Amino acid sequence: MPELPEMEIVARRLGEALAGEAIETAVAPGINALKTFDPPLSALEGARIDGVRRRGKLLMLDAGGLTLLMHLMSAGRLQLFDKRATMRDRTMRVGLRLPGDRELRLREFGTRQRAWVKLLRPEAVGGDESLERLGPEAWPDPPALGPLLKAPRPLHTLLRDQQVVAGIGRTWVDEILHAARLSPFKRGDDLSDEEAERLREAMVSELGRVLDVYEEQVAMPLPEKFPKPTRVHNHQGEPCPRCEGVLEAVFYEDYVMTYCPACQTEGRVLKDRRLSRLLK
Ligand SMILES: [Zn+2]
Predict the structure, then answer these.
(1) What's the distance, Cα to Cα, between the start and end of the chain in Å?
(2) What is the CA(208)–ligand 1 centre distance, in A?
(3) From the CA of 263, how far away is ligand 1's center (Å)?
(4) DSSP one-letter string for 2-56
(5) Residue 153, Cβ neighbours under 10 Å: how many?
(6) 237 CA to centre of ligand 1 in angstroms
(7) For residue 221, is the peptide bond before it cis, meaning its omega torsion is within 30 degrees of 0?
(8) Residue ranges of the alpha helices (H) in the chain?
(9) Burial of 66 (C-beta count, 10 Å sphere; 0-12/13-18/19+)
């Protein structure tokens, strides 16, 4: 699932490429992808694109005083094509046709249709529920985390809760917790002030590190897969990048949580949920 660094680089690259361009036509062939009906998507036709912004994992394309709010969910990709599709592109959820036969396409891979877009007037942007309920940005300058994380829930869950702090998902949470030397299962309300500050610093530096890599390596056309510079997530069985201990993992149904026992859990190997279920 694309997270803050992926969406940030997409917003930057598309913003650079699209600013000033006029939208010729706007279509939404994906059933259910467009969550609003007023104004209609055709209201974008003839509008000039002002830019592309990011909030949490959401993208906002501003054009003609309207905002196209997009959530790619886990399998969506937003890409600019030099040529419009000659055959029907079944993965296309929304398409903006631009001069010179180019087309910005929100495509979604896999069987489920979960990516969505909304077209909002300026007065609706502030009150939109998916934007309104987002917590503060995880990067570049999040507030002190102590008060935000004061809940009897594990850090691994809290940090991925978009209402607590916006932008982090299953990949970068592992890197952040490892950088902060904190257990993924430590409860938010058990954090000391020093730990909360360490976590905040790790969050800013890890997300910044990833973004620096993308700044260097991600160019147009946007790749379908990003060159994810992970050091911990999904590296179970490999040496810890900090202490040379071995990284362990807990496997969930559709994702993996990787950590270093020596750096994060005082040497304890956490129960593997998959294994314990199989053994029942
Ligand atoms: Zn370690």
Answers:
(1) 31
(2) 21
(3) 4
(4) --HHHHHHHHHHHHHHHTTPBP-EEE--STTTB---SS-GGGGTTPBEEEEEEET
(5) 16
(6) 12
(7) yes
(8) 4-18, 122-127, 129-132, 145-148, 155-158, 170-179, 193-217, 261-264, 273-279
(9) buried
Is the pLDDT at 239 greater than 60? The verdict is yes
31-55 in b/e form (b: 16+ CB < 10 A) is eebbebeeeebebbbebebbbbbbb
Q: Can you give the pLDDT at residue 97?
A: 95
Neighbours of ion ligand 1 (CB under 5 A): 240, 242-243, 245, 260, 262-263
Calpha distance 42→136 (Å, rounded): 33
For residue range 194-208, list pLDDT tens digits in order: 999 999 999 999 999
What is the tens place of the pLDDT at every residue in 71-122?
998 889 999 998 877 777 888 999 999 999 999 999 998 888 899 999 999 9
At 280 the pLDDT is: 41
Q: What pLDDT is attached to residue 277?
A: 53
Q: From the CA of 236, how far away is ligand 1's center (Å)? A: 12
pTM over 0.90: yes
The Cα–Cα gap between 44 and 55 comes to: 21
